[in-house]
């Protein structure tokens, strides 16, 4: 009996030991894995620096004041934070100047945590060990201290040290005091060696600031970020892995929204679907749905997905390829357009551009620029006209038709960029439109386009409304020249449309307003232009009537071929 009990005890202890050992082993493995994904190099932060040769009591005092504002744990896991009372009122006053909630930002610790927001399929992807090294380049002009520093901490905290060789900060001639000596001091004492700061001797704009960063970088890959970002779990490896496969892959993370007011990390409302980059014929970037055929071919929402353009601020590119494919147009000034220029250039000159859904980075989208734009020039417009002239071939007509003012301004010399296009034997824009982004071309392969006019000289008009959401179709006296607001097309599929929206009728009652909704090929978006000029809505058999009422809205009504307000003509008819 006694022997049996002893043996039992032995078994129990042995078993317990085994369990303990296994749990410990698992924990160790987990620790190791965590360490290889995120090496907390901002850990030095807060260490007693008085023994350091760089120690400066003045700056330490300023830094302590910053830290005293922190509320430990505030905003952790990316949750939304609402300020209260007088503080909330002050925050909204400050927000009018800063374009984001600076007061709240100052209370959220630099090392706040974020959730792992990736699609679950991302977690089982295996990446090679020997990925390329990376230089993260963060450019800024008069960004605020707390957001800039949080960006740097976040990158250091969440990037494996074996890949992250350096963080390069480029100060585009900021005026704020806090970005001067205090910043040098902070970097020198907290992250010596790994973070490098370069200052431009005059305001140069974000394009030339990024060029400076690229010139100073020494790693295999350049990774650009805006100065108000936070990166998330395992954000780096998916980007580097794709570049390792092919150096001409230019890759973009999913850019999540960090709420400008509450600092909530918005996880697309919990869904994993994402949009890719497009553009408008008047030269702006926009977000578009992943084309149906691409979406259908994907096995998982975690797969790299080709994107026709990029938003511009957050992307990675092989350093070698960056220079080979023409870096940036250094004549572009201040802000805007460089993202589209690079997108067309990459695609047309043999590269590719992808959104990598397993890499997710948050960015504070601001409603206006909280920094000064020097001079009177419309730099965004000029930058845009520069890339349109270089990359859009004949299609530049579509740009200048609706932005004629830019046809006349001096956009500088583009001969170097045209020479580059020739040297790299880049494909024409028609190739891009056929193979990369099958976008509606308003004056090609259509029944007609231009002003759509009644016998009473009233024209269809978008009434300058924002076309991102559904709007009623408007009417207005025809302008003397074709302007953007009166530019409509009649497609061969019978759509009466603009670039992205189609005239649609949802009700059979008369008279009924006509809605401009996102084109989707459905029957309620089909029209027929009859021999005698009636615009018949196919599924209801009602006619478009341009009789102008006080609300300036177009309506459908019973067809009356004798009514001048129902007899329409298209300005340009391609296939009569
Ligand atoms: C978007 C891009 C931005 C850039 C821009 C088009 C994202 C998330 N952001 O606008 O990176 O491609 O479109 O040009 O895709 N800056 C300078 N010097 C200047 C102006 C700005 O260094 O003269 C810095 C600025 O401090 C910031 C970055 O450039 O870190 C981008 O500026 P932004 O945040 O105002 O641009 P954003 O996000 O509205
Ligand atoms: Mn930005």
From TrEMBL:
Membrane topology, from the record: Single-pass type II membrane protein
Compartment list: Golgi apparatus membrane
Segments forming domain Ricin B lectin: 449-571
Cofactors named for this entry: Mn(2+)
Classification via Pfam families: Glycos_transf_2, Ricin_B_lectin
Record's keyword terms, sorted: Disulfide bond, Glycosyltransferase, Golgi apparatus, Lectin, Manganese, Membrane, Signal-anchor, Transferase, Transmembrane, Transmembrane helix
Pathway: Protein modification; protein glycosylation
EC supergroup of this enzyme: transferase
Gene3D superfamilies, sorted: 2.80.10.50, Spore Coat Polysaccharide Biosynthesis Protein SpsA, Chain A
EC number: 2.4.1.-
Entry keyword annotation includes Mitochondrion: no
Family note: Belongs to the glycosyltransferase 2 family. GalNAc-T subfamily.
PANTHER family the UniProt entry points to: N-ACETYLGALACTOSAMINYLTRANSFERASE, POLYPEPTIDE N-ACETYLGALACTOSAMINYLTRANSFERASE 1
The protein's name: Polypeptide N-acetylgalactosaminyltransferase
UniProt source species: Nesidiocoris tenuis
């Amino acid at each position: 009996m006694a022997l049996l009990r002893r043996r039992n005890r032995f078994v129990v202890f042995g078993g317990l030991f085994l369990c303990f050992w296994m749990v410990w082993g698992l924990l160790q493995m987990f620790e190791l894995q965590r360490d290889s994904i995120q090496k907390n190099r901002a850990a030095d932060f807060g260490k007693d620096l008085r023994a350091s040769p760089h120690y400066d009591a003045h700056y330490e005092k300023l830094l302590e004041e910053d830290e005293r504002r922190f509320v430990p744990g505030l905003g952790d896991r990316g949750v939304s934070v609402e300020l209260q009372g007088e503080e909330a009122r002050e925050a909204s006053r400050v927000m009018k100047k800063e374009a984001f909630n600076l007061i709240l930002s100052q209370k959220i610790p630099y090392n706040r945590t974020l959730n792992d927001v990736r699609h679950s399929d991302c977690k089982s992807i295996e990446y090679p060990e020997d990925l390329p090294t990376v230089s993260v380049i963060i450019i800024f002009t008069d960004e605020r201290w707390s957001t800039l520093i949080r960006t740097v901490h976040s990158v250091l905290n969440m990037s494996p040290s074996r890949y992250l060789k350096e963080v390069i900060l480029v100060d585009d001639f900021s005026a704020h005091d806090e970005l001067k000596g205090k910043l040098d001091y902070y970097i020198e004492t907290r992250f010596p060696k790994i973070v490098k700061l370069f200052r431009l001797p005059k305001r140069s704009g974000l394009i030339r600031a990024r060029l400076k960063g690229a010139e100073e970088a020494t790693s295999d890959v350049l990774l650009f970020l805006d100065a108000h970002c936070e990166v998330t779990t395992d954000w780096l490896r998916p980007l580097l892995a794709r570049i390792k496969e092919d150096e001409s892959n230019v890759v973009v993370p999913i850019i999540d929204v960090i709420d400008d007011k509450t600092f909530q990390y918005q996880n697309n409302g919990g869904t994993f679907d994402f949009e890719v980059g497009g553009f408008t014929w008047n030269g702006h970037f926009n977000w578009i749905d992943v084309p149906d055929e691409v979406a259908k071919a994907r096995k998982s929402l975690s797969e790299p997905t080709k994107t026709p353009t990029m938003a511009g601020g957050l992307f990675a590119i092989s350093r070698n390829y960056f220079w080979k494919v023409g870096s940036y147009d250094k004549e572009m000034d201040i802000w805007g357009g460089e993202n589209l220029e690079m997108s067309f250039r990459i695609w047309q000159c043999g590269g590719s551009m992808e959104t990598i859904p397993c890499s997710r980075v948050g960015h504070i989208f601001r409603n206006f620029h909280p920094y000064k734009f020097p001079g009177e020039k419309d730099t965004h417009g000029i930058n845009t006209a520069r890339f349109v002239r270089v990359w859009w071939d004949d299609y530049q007509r579509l740009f200048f038709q609706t932005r004629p003012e830019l046809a006349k301004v001096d956009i500088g010399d583009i001969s170097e960029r045209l020479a580059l296009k020739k040297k790299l034997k880049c494909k024409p824009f028609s190739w891009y439109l056929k193979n990369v982004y099958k976008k509606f071309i308003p004056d090609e392969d259509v029944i007609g386009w231009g002003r759509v006019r009644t016998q009473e000289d009233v024209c269809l008009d978008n009434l300058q409304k924002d076309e991102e959401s559904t709007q009623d179709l408007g009417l207005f006296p025809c302008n003397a020249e074709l302007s953007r607001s009166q530019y409509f097309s009649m497609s061969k599929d019978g759509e009466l449309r603009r670039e992205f929206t189609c005239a649609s009728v949802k009700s059979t009652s008369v008279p009924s307003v006509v809605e401009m909704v996102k084109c989707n090929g459905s029957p309620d978006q089909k029209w027929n232009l009859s021999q005698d000029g009636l615009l018949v809505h196919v599924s209801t058999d009602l006619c478009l009537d341009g009789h102008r009422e006080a609300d300036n809205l177009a309506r459908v009504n019973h067809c009356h071929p004798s009514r001048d307000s129902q007899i329409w003509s298209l300005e340009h008819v391609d296939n009569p």
